[in-house]
Amino acid sequence: MPSELLDRVRDVLCDVLSPMVEHDGGKLYLVDLSDDGVKLHLAGTYGGCPGTPIAIEQVLLPPLQRVAPALDVEITCGWRVPEGAELLAVKA
Q1: CA-CA distance, 6 to 30, in Å (whole number)?
Q2: Which residues contact 9 (CB under 8 A, 6 or more apart)?
Q3: What is the pLDDT of residues 10-51, one digit of tens each?
Q4: Among the four 38, 45, 49, 83, which has the fewest Cβ within 10 Å?
């Protein structure tokens, strides 16, 4: 994946998705971003919410797919955050 595409994906994660998730009481973590795709983890209110799969499909995936339609996206959720994951927090 070209570096400018990786930069655009990171921009969507930081500028669009992270603020939405944080506003809803959740936390969005970047586990991995590489040529193979992106791995994300949801925690906070998304950790055990039965509505999380719907939020993933209808809210989180569409912006990423608009930027990079062929991007392989893996999103996990739960209270335990994968080791080495980076919290994508809204900048103050």
Answers
A1: 13
A2: 33, 38, 64, 67, 68, 71
A3: 999 999 999 999 999 999 999 999 888 999 999 999 988 899
A4: 83
